[in-house]
Amino acid sequence: MLPVIALVGRPNVGKSTLFNALTRSRDALVADMPGVTRDRHYGICHLGERPFVVVDTGGLSGSDEGIEGLTAQQVRLAIGEANLLVFVVDARDGILPLDASILGELRRSGKPVIVVVNKTDGTDEPTVMAEFASFGVAQTLPMSAAHNRGIDVLVASALPHLPPDEDDGAEARLSLEEQGMRVAIVGRPNAGKSTLINRLLGEDRLIVSDLAGTTRDPIRVRLERDGKRYTLIDTAGVRRKARVEEAVEKFSVIKTLQSIAAAQVTVLMIDARENLADQDLTLIGHVIEEGRALVIAVNKWDGLDAYQREQTVKALERRLQFASWAKIVFISALHGSGMRELMRSVVRAHTAATKELSSSDLTRTLEKAYESYQPPLVRGHAPKLRYAHPGGNNPPTIVIHGSRTKHIAPAYRRYLENFFRTRYKLEGTPIRIDFRDGENPFAGKKNELTASQARKRQRMIRNAKRREK
């Protein structure tokens, strides 16, 4: 296991900026307003002699109620699992009573503490550092995380506090396959995404609240279940554009769409008590556009009676005809029903999306499809489909070579998609078919006559003129 360093402090002191600087990423959402980070956010720092995990936490506001209270619970969980605590304060604000209160809680944990005085750029640094020296913490470091100043000193100061090296690099070097399949959990606000991940993990890893928009950063969580490894990505809820007002929420939506692109399988969470909204269909459109496998999880299913369930199923079948290949699973994230079927569907979708196909088998399947139903004539000629080969996976891509393929109707493309899907059992994933016309080697070239052909042409012209006379 890699050692863990937790970043703790008041809201808006620069913890997420420091997290991004340490992990050399832009994974943590950063904005000039308090309370942007709420859940624990993990990343790996490779800047020192050995890698370690950095945990970005939400700001402690001193309140134990509402979202602030749930955020505080997540911070305390991070404190409990950390080997070292980095207490981040704001040089421009000076020492506030809340800072002293937080430091007291960190000291009571018994963990080593380093104080980072952030935002020292543009201040009288000696005076600022003298003020924070009153904390009595031996390692109190000046920092400007936004300008990467002081990062190396922090890393060098942190390493001696970490437990002995036990091949920490092994976890940091895990390949994408060893980290497991990447599964993004997406949906509208308050659909139950964080509740689902907490249920799968068996712990309150993510903040859950009836308040829509609780999650903002995409949170990556490792899971091992039934002998398989997963990286679950909890994302912010996506609403209609007209209702996305805060700049932070707009960036959260962008991060969600990026998470779909980074995932191998996307689970779309739908609230069974609400009708399928246009925003749900838009999210499915993004998933298909990215070519990602898709499982639709209808949550809060236990709260519907028999008639409501029947009407919900009919509505889903009617509105999801364009993605009829996606598996629909009915679950209750709160009570745990449907979890096994959901994870089985995720595995099947991932298997289909990453399936390796051979050129010879694809060509034989293409021949059978062509014999069963040929494409309509184009200007009196039928398009010819000669052979096929794989063009990649996730999504499965089939490249078909032939002639006049540019004029093949969309209906025939769908026929081929369904034929290949049935033949290879590609459940839960979109399929892409790429038609390619065989190039005409004589296109654009003038037909040069041989000497004998030129003489023959002259004779034919003379004979034609004589007959005219």
Overview of this protein structure:
The chain has 469 residues and is an alpha/beta fold. It has 3 domains: 4-164, 3-Layer(aba) Sandwich (Rossmann fold); 168-354, P-loop containing nucleotide triphosphate hydrolases (Rossmann fold), CATH 3.40.50.300; 355-468, K homology (KH) domain (GMP Synthetase, Chain A, domain 3, 2-Layer Sandwich), CATH 3.30.300. The chain is 37% helix and 20% strand. It is built from 15 helices and 15 strands. The strands form 3 sheets. A 6-stranded mixed beta sheet has the order 2-3-1-4-5-6, sandwiched between helices. A 6-stranded mixed beta sheet has the order 8-9-7-10-11-12, sandwiched between helices. Strands 13-14-15 form a 3-stranded mixed beta sheet. Helix 13 (359-372) crosses helix 14. The longest helix is centred in the C-terminal third of the chain and has 18 residues, at 451-468. Residues 454-469 have a biased composition (Basic residues). Residues 438-469 are annotated as: Disordered.
Any idea what the radius of gyration is? 30 Å
Query: How many domain modules?
Result: 3
Total number of strands = 15
Proportion in β-strands? 15-25%
Helix content: 25-40%
* Derived structural class: alpha/beta
CA-CA gap between termini: 101 Å
Provide the low-confidence segments as ranges: 28-38, 167-177, 205-217, 237-252
Architecture (CATH level 2) name of the largest domain: 3-Layer(aba) Sandwich
**CATH fold group of the largest domain:** Rossmann fold
Shape: elongated
Assigned CATH class of the largest domain: Alpha Beta
Largest sheet: 6 strands, mixed
Numbering strands along the chain, what is their spatial order in the largest sheet?
2-3-1-4-5-6
Round the mean pLDDT to the nearest integer and report it. Answer: 82
SSE run: EHEEHEHEHEHHHEHEEHEHEHEHHEEHEH
Fourth-tier CATH superfamily name of the largest domain: P-loop containing nucleotide triphosphate hydrolases
Number of helices: 15
